[in-house]
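Anyone up for a design puzzle?
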């Protein structure tokens, strides 16, 4: 047995600052009541510390921090403050009811910040931080201190700053790469030198807070861990100032996947990662990049025929993590022009269809022609192609026609015509505050599926006024999620088709399960 696997792993505490630093990303501001919802989810996720905001910034912010502190008694709450007495008073008051709390103080340590931002000498900075750490220590036992822009600071002065904070009672030293400037081979060893050169440096815990300006936030955080750091400050989806912060899900899954090599572990519950990511993205109106590691749309999806064939034989051929363990719906196969017969056969089997060899070749020919035209073959298009190849009806319901009346001073009105699999048609009308809402109300009358409309994603697949729009609709039925996708120049029509496709998925899955149960499988 590998010796490193027999040793106890060091626990890395996850300090989440989504609601403070993450919210500082331009356009990410959220309402106080939304902060509370996200904080509850962070607690379910298993973070060790939540930094819920900057109490001095507004009355609403103060009240949100206060409610989070009162409600979430099982997680430590960090009150964030500059080395300013009024900031400290606000942070202390807002977190007073927390079962576990700390005060997080910061002041700049780089010369460029001292010269142009603080306009103070090094001695003046030392005096301020000593006074404010001592002042904060009157109210709380746990003081976290951060020398801002540490990675661009003179190490000699950095040692003085950290030593002064420890002298006055700081218990956690957070060394941030505020500008995302450091390289891993520089950043990690800095923690070792701090412990060696700072009086009392071996008596405190160490943390790090890395920004992603050079795309190195996770790498720098892992380098810090290798040099003794026991806490990492992160944001869900990597949001935050400029290019963002160290991504919670990327750091956690790097540790989870390579924990034996790193010799560390966290207390995060991976099954809540995807749900947390989606909640933050929706609440802050921050879309997630398709190629974002862990939670991005393409992170566990494959179009290459070679990859798809390998995955169908053994998932580990092309995946190093299990997406379902993180709550990510299993949809690893994306059908496009690079897909092979095995992937197509697998997908239609999921809907309960099995084709003879001749029918399969007919479908494959139609599929390739359509893929050249449309790039991605969505499930509704695939089922249409199956129907054309076998001369059968493959979808329980299909959208025949859609009409929408919209305007700035009138209620949006829609009508849809839906064809049932027996060939009969029905037309339904409804209104809504928006055109899509009106259309969805129509479809709900036409398609008898008790499914909650959970999410809609709209993406432009090209540029210009003739661009195609891709709609991805997620519905929830009996605790399971179903997705439908459609592409069209009319985005309302694309969304309507995607919704019908998702509902068809619910019905076809129920039928497949029913057939399997009847057959005793």
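Challenge accepted. My sequence:
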């Amino acid at each position: 047995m590998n010796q490193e696997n027999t040793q106890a792993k060091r626990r890395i505490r996850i300090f989440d600052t989504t609601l403070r630093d993450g919210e500082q990303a331009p356009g990410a501001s959220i309402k106080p009541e939304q902060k509370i919802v996200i904080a509850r989810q962070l607690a379910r996720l298993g973070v060790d510390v939540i930094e819920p905001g900057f109490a001095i910034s507004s009355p609403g912010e103060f009240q949100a921090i206060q409610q989070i502190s009162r409600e979430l008694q099982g997680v430590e709450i960090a009150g964030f403050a500059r080395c300013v007495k009024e900031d400290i008073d606000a942070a202390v008051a807002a977190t007073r009811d927390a079962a576990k709390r700390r005060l997080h103080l910061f002041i700049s340590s780089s010369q460029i910040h001292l010269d142009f931002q603080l306009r103070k000498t090094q001695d003046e900075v030392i005096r301020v931080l000593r006074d404010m750490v001592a002042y904060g220590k009157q109210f709380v036992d746990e003081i976290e201190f951060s020398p801002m822009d540490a990675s661009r600071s003179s190490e000699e002065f950095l040692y003085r700053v950290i030593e002064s904070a420890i002298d006055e009672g700081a218990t956690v030293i957070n060394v941030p790469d505020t500008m995302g400037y450091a390289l891993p081979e520089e950043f990690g060893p800095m923690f070792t030198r701090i412990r060696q050169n700072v009086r009392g440096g071996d008596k405190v815990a160490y943390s790090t807070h890395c920004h992603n300006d050079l795309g190195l936030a996770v790498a720098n955080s892992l380098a810090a861990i290798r040099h003794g750091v026991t806490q990492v400050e992160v944001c869900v989806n990597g949001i935050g100032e400029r290019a963002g912060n160290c991504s919670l899900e990327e750091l956690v899954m790097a540790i989870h996947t390579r924990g034996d090599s790193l010799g560390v572990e966290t207390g995060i519950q991976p099954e809540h990662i995807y749900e947390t990511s989606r909640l933050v993205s929706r609440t802050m109106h921050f879309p997630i990049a398709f190629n974002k590691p862990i939670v991005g749309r393409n992170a566990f999806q494959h179009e290459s025929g070679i990859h798809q064939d390998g995955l169908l034989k053994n998932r580990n051929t092309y995946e190093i993590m299990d997406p379902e363990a993180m709550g990510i719906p299993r949809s690893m196969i994306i059908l496009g022009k690079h897909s092979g017969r095995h992937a197509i056969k697998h997908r239609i089997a999921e809907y309960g269809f099995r084709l003879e060899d001749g029918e399969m070749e007919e479908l494959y020919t139609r599929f390739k022609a359509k893929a050249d035209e449309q790039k991605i073959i969505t499930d509704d298009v695939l089922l249409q192609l199956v129907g054309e190849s076998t001369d059968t009806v493959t979808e329980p319901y299909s959208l025949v026609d859609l009409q929408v009346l919209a305007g700035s001073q009138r209620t949006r009105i829609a009508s849809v015509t839906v064809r049932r699999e027996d060939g009969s048609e029905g037309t339904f009308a409804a209104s809504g505050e928006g055109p899509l809402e009106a259309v969805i109300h129509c479809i709900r009358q036409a398609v008898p599926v008790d499914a909650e409309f959970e999410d809609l994603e709209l993406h432009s697949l090209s540029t210009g006024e003739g661009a195609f729009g891709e709609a991805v609709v997620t519905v929830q039925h009996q605790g399971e999620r179903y997705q439908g996708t459609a592409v069209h120049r009319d985005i309302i029509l694309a969304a309507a088709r995607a919704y019908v496709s998702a509902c068809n998925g619910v019905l076809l899955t129920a039928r497949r399960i029913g057939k399997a149960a009847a057959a005793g499988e």
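A detail worth pointing out: The CA atoms of residues 195 and 202 lie 5 Å apart.
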